[in-house]
Amino acid sequence: MGYEPQKDFGTPASRSSDMVTLTIDGRDVTVPAGTSVMRAAAEAGGEIPKLCATDNVKAFGSCRLCLVEVEGMRGTPASCTTPVMPGMKVKTQTPKLDKLRRGVMELYISDHPLDCLTCSANNDCELQDQAANVGLRDVRYGYEGANHLGKAKDESNPYFAFDSSKCIVCSRCVRACDEVQGTFALTVDGRGFASVISAGQKEDNFLGSECVSCGACVQACPTAALNEKSVIEIGKPERSVLTTCAYCGVGCTFRAEMRGEQLVRMIPNKDGKANHGHSCVKGRFAWGYANHADRILKPMIREKIDQPWREVSWDEAIGFAAAKIQAIKAESGPRALGGITSSRCTNEETFLVQKLIRAGFGANNVDTCARVCHSPTGFGLSNAFGTSAGTQDFDSVEDVDVFIVIGANPTDAHPVFGSRMKQRLRQGAKMIVIDPRKIDLVKSAHIQADHHLPLQPGTNVAVLTSLAHVIVTEGLADEAFIRERCDWDEYQDWARFVSDAKHSPEFLEPVTKVPAQTVREAARLYATGGNGAIYYGLGVTEHSQGSSTVMAIANLAMCTGNIGRRGVGVNPLRGQNNVQGACDMGSFPHELSGYRHISNADARALFEADWGVTLDAEPGLRIPNMLDAALDGSFRAIYIQGEDILQSDPDTHHVAAGLAAMDCVIVHDLFLNETANYAHVFLPGSTFLEKDGTFTNAERRIQPVQQVMEPANGYADWQITQMLANAIGCDWNYGHPSEILAEIARLTPTFSGVTWERVVSGEPLQWPVNEKAPQGSPIMHVDGFVRGKGKFMVTEYVPTDERTGPRFPLLLTTGRILSQYNVGAQTRRTGNQVWHDEDILEMHPTDAENRGLKTGDFARLASRSGETTLRVLVTEKVAPGVVYTTFHHPSTQANVVTTDNSDWATNCPEYKVTAVQVTPSNGPSEWQTEYADLTAMARRIETMEPAE
C-alpha cells in the first residue's frame, strides 16, 4: 500500500437532505444545501487553494487564499465561507485570482523560513503544496524570522514539537483545540506579524499547559510548526494501513503510517465511525510500548516460581505447557483446568481461547476481565431488554438533550467520546452528573453540569430509586410508551415500590448525602427535557449492587420512554478495546458465543457438531471461584492470555495465594507482568500492530485490526493458542483470522452476516448483523425490545457489607486517569509517564488537615484487607469522608486494600467502596517492600545459549 494522505475537503460536510446544483468551472455539481463552494469543488474532483481551511473545523475565512469569482457577486468571496446556491456559476481559476493568491502567498512566505530541504515536513507540507499550486516563484519581501518573539521552539511535550518560526498563524490548531477537542488550551497572542500561537501564558509551554495531547492541533497544522517527534526523527511515511486502537472501548480507527518496518505515526481516520478523525493521547501517541526493551520476545519456562526463568524454543515451551496440562487432566479431571481470555486481544483470538478451554481442556472454566468490570451490564440489561450491550451508536450523542452520566469519567477514560459530549453541551444540551467526585464534566473550562449529585459511594441504587420516585409520583412517566412497550403489570408493581415515601429524596438524603432538592430537579430535567440518554461506567457496576444499579438505570429509561431512537438509550462505556467482543465470543463460564447458556442443549449441539467434541453442560468457574478452588486443591492449572489479574483483580493477597497454589500457571502476554511472578510458562504475545482480526467496541461496532508489521515474537496470538491446542490433541488448521471469523459467524446468530471482506471494506457493522438486520443495528430496540416486553424490576437498596467505623472511617473509591491505562503495562512504557508516574491519593482538605497531611506527603492507606503507601493530593474534587486513587502502578497496587465483596449476581468486585484509614507515613509498607523483593526474584532470566 502506497502512502496517500486522506483528502481534505476544506469545510465540514452539510447534513441537509436538500440538494443544490451549481456550476463550477463549467461543470455542473450537485451537493447538499449548506455545502461551501470550497467543498463542492473538492467533491467534484477539483481543488481550491487553501491554508486556514480544513474539514474537521468550521470555516474561518482568514487566509484569503481560497478566493473565487461568482457570477453576479461583487468582489472575490472566500470559497470556504460562501455557501452554494442553486444556479450559482463559480470560477476558481482566473488571471485575477491567480494574481491575488500569489500576493497572499508571498506575504505568508515572507514570514516563513525557506529551509524546505531540511524541514521535517518537506513533501508533507500544505504551505509548500499551495505555494506550488498558486505558481509562486519569487518573494519580494525579506524574512526576519520569528525567534525575536521569544518562543521559537517548544519541545516540552514528549510526542510533538512546536516551532513558532514555522508558524503561519492560520489558527487551525487553535480552532481544532476548541471545536474538536473542547479543551481551549491554545490561543493567538499579539497582532499582525507579531502574532504567535500560545499554549497559555507567555511563560507556559505545551507540557505545562491545559493541552491534553490529543493530537488535534498537530493534525490540523499545515506546516512543520507542530510536528510529531517521530516524523522529525524517522522521516515521512511511505505507506499506511488502516487499523483500530487497542486502548479503550471507544474503538477509534487509525491509519498506521509506516516507513519500512518502522511505525512513524498514527493518524486518526476521518472516516472512522467511532472517532470521525479525532483521537486521544493514548491512541495517537502511546504506541511505543510495542518496541520497548522490557518486551519479552522468547518463550520461557521454570518448574517452580522461586526459580529463574529459562529461555527456550517455542516447541519446548509449548511441549512443556501441554505436558503439564495433560498430566493434571489425567490426575484430576478436566475441571481442574481453566483459562482467562483477553479483552485486549481480537475477537478471533478470544474465541479460540474459550474454544481451547471448552473443547480442548474439557470444561467451562473460562472467564474474562468483564467479570471484574461490566459483568453486571450483561446481567442487568439482558434481563431488562433482552440484550447485554449498549443500545445506541456513538453518533446518537448529537441528538441528546439531557445526559445522565453516572459512575463514569468520559473525559479521562473515554476521551474521544468525552469530547463529543462536551461539543453537545456547548450546543445547549443539559448534563446531570452522579458521581462522588467533581469530574471534569461537573465543571471545567467552557462547560458546566446543570446538576451534580455527589452521592455517598455505595448508594447508587438509592439515588436512582429516589429519581424514579420523583418521576412516578409527579406524573412524569411516559404511560403511552410503557403500555405499548413494557409489561404493564410489572410496571405497576415497580411504580408502587418507588412511590413509597421511604424512597423519596427527602427520606434517603441522610443515606445518599445528596440534597433532596437537587434530586428532584435532576429527575424533572431528565423526564421532561427532551431526549434523555444515560451513560455509565465502572462506578455503576463495580459494587455489591452492580446488577441492581444497571436494572435501576434500565427502569429509569423505560419509565420515561427514553429507549429505541436516536439521542436516548442506556449506554455502558466499556473500558477495554475489546471487552464487548470478549463477552460476545463466549468468554463467560455459563455462556457460549452470542450469550446462549451452556445448559441450552440446542446451542450446545451446534458447537458439538462443528467442533467434533462433547461439551460439558455445567457452567464452569468464575475467576474468584477458580482462585478459591486453587486454594482447596481442586483447581490446578490456568492459561491467562493478556490479563494481569494480580494487579487488576481485587484483594491482591487472595489472588496471589490462589496463583501460588496452582501447579501450572501459563501467562501469555507482552511483558513480565505482576501475574507472571507466579507463572511457570511465559508465552510472549503480539501487539495489535502485529496481527489481523477484529475488535468490537462499546457501540457493538465490529472493526478491522490489520497487521502493520511482522510479530517481533514470531507469531500472532491466535497462532500461539492454536499451537497449544494442537499440542494437547486438538486438530486445528486455521491459516488466517478470517477463517476463525467465518466460524464465529457460523455459530453465532448475532454475527451471522459478518465476513472478513465486509469488515475490511469499511462497512459499518454493528451487531446484530443477520438476516433480520443485514446492514447491522446502530440503534437497538427500535420497534420493540429484543426480549418482547421491557421488564421493570424492583431494586431494593441493600447497604454494602463494607462499613466505615472508628478504625476505618473513610471510604476509598478508585478510577482511571487520562494519560494511563488500566494496569499501565503499556502506557507506563511510553512518554505518558511524564504526566502520571505514580498513583496519588486524593483527599478533601478537611480530612487531610485532621490527619496532618498536605499535598506531596506520603500516607499509609489501610483497610481490613491490607495496606499500601502513596503520596497525597489535597483537593476539593472529593467530598469529605471520601478518598480516591488510581490503580495504574504496581508499586502501589491499590487493590491490595480492596476487599472480596462482590455483586450479588455476577461476582463483579466492589472496587468502588472500601472502608479505609489514612495516616502519615515515612516510607513503603511492609507489603510493598516484600513485594518488590518478590518481583525482583521472579523476573530473573537465564538467556538461551546461542546455537552451535
Instruction: Please describe the biggest sheet, giving its number of strands, its sense, and whether it closes into a barrel.
Output: 8 strands, mixed
Low-confidence segments, ≥5 residues, pLDDT <50? Answer: 146-150
CATH architecture of the largest domain: 3-Layer(aba) Sandwich
- Strand segment count: 38
CATH topology of the largest domain: Rossmann fold
Intertermini distance: 40 Å
Amount of helix:
25-40%
Structural shape: globular
Secondary structural class: alpha/beta
Protein name: Formate dehydrogenase subunit alpha
Pfam families: Fer2_4, Fer4_7, Molybdop_Fe4S4, Molybdopterin, Molydop_binding, NADH-G_4Fe-4S_3
Family: Belongs to the complex I 75 kDa subunit family. In the C-terminal section; belongs to the prokaryotic molybdopterin-containing oxidoreductase family.
GO molecular function: 2 iron, 2 sulfur cluster binding; 4 iron, 4 sulfur cluster binding; formate dehydrogenase (NAD+) activity; metal ion binding; molybdopterin cofactor binding; NADH dehydrogenase activity
Describe this structure in words.
With 948 residues, this protein is an alpha/beta fold. The chain folds into five domains: 19-133, Ubiquitin-like (UB roll), CATH 3.10.20.740; 153-291, Alpha-Beta Plaits, CATH 3.30.70.20; 302-373 and 579-752, 3-Layer(aba) Sandwich (Rossmann fold), CATH 3.40.50; 384-572, Dimethylsulfoxide Reductase, domain 2, CATH 3.40.228; 810-937, Barwin-like endoglucanases. 29% of the residues lie in helices and 17% in strands. It has 29 helices and 38 strands. A hairpin with a 4-residue loop joins β29 (693-696) and β30 (701-705). The chain is globular and about 90 Å long. InterPro entries: 2Fe-2S_ferredoxin-like_sf (IPR036010), 2Fe-2S_ferredoxin-type (IPR001041), 4Fe4S_Fe-S-bd (IPR017896), 4Fe4S_Fe_S_CS (IPR017900), Asp_de-COase-like_dom_sf (IPR009010), Formate_Dh-H_N (IPR041924), Formate_DH_asu (IPR006478), MoPterin_dinucl-bd_dom (IPR006657). Keywords: 2Fe-2S, 4Fe-4S, Iron, Iron-sulfur, Metal-binding, Oxidoreductase, Repeat.
